[in-house]
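agent> fetching stored inputs for the manganese (II) ion docking request
agent> found them:
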Amino acid sequence: MTKTLLLLPGDGIGPEVIAEVRRVARALWPDLALEEAPFGGAALDAGGEPVSDATVARAKTVDAVLMGAVGGPKWAGVARHLRPEAGLLRLRKEMEVFANIRPALCFAALADASALKREIVEGLDIVIVRELTGGVYFGEPRGIEDIGGGEKRGVDTQVYTSNEIRRVARVAFELARKRGGLVHSAEKSNVMETGLLWREEVTKLHAADYADVKLEHILADNCAMQLVKAPRQFDVIVTDNLFGDILSDEAAMLTGSIGLLPSAALGEAGKPGLYEPVHGSAPDIAGQGLANPLAAILSFEMALRLSLGRADLADRLSAAVKTALDKGARTRDLGGAMGTREMGDAVLAAL
Ligand code: NAD
Ligand code: IPM
Ligand code: MN
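agent> prediction call returned; pasting tokens
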């Protein structure tokens, strides 16, 4: 049966890295149907909103969605609900992709590209499971109000229900069962009510269904510290939307570059996944052909495996990426001189 992948290139380096995914997809699976729609700032400029109703509707019916990146200084002054990032948040919410799987893998060839010493990161293989459709990103009330005397008050609200915590924790436990059998649950139960509820729900679920998996509770600030001190002590880390956003950027630097980190956002089984590199639109290098396309290519690899039913092709693609890196393919973020296109060429050559 024909499968369909919806590409949302977006802004900045988004279109540059998605162009390489397109080439890789064509070579690997000529019959995969590729569709494309404007997204983020590009969609705002073209149609007045960062994602159209038609694109949201299509995203719910294809087999998988792959997003490049959104945002940039051009839209810094735009109203909150029209910002490119708001389009991405709406898409995540409407696709109900509540579990964001962000693996951080240190490729052997890149152990010296990390900001940390080789002996700390060599062989690193961890996964951050970030809650993606709740928490402070979506909580109400929120806003900025005048409180008189020239003063204002800004409000964001962190909210989690039991079910929101349980369903993402379940994804983390299931994943750990197939990996190293260890879950760290990171929150701030020492200061936050949502943190306390998070710890209670994860503890209950663990006792009920996952007693075979080892569970450690860790305060999110200590987790950030331990990730730099001894990252290989972790296997799967499950955490909320905001902590997951921050901890995954931190994990990126353990692997060598944020240009390497893919992600998969998943909802209930059978629903389309949303795949995206962890990095943003990189305004400082956009339009120059310098971006590392591997995070996007590896996000496609996750889509092949988790939404498109082609683990065989995913295995070939990840092997090709490893071969390219082993042979010395390096974009600038990895200390090399290759451009986006040349890195794409290196992966295609290995394929
Ligand atoms: P960023 O990830 O875009 O860039 C941070 C740094 O990493 C920059 O120096 C950039 O050049 C570098 N970098 C990122 N991706 C790279 C790649 N593939 N190859 C080489 N170098 C790479 O983060 P930022 O600068 O904080 O954010 C820029 C814009 O992107 C903001 O508007 C932000 O909201 C948005 N953003 C979007 C996403 C997304 O679309 N998923 C993620 C993060 C940030
Ligand atoms: C990410 C990004 C997004 C987030 C932004 C662009 C909305 O930083 O995917 O990590 O904060 O979730
Ligand atoms: Mn982020």
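agent> quick read of the result: The chain is about 40% helix and 20% strand.
agent> awaiting further instructions
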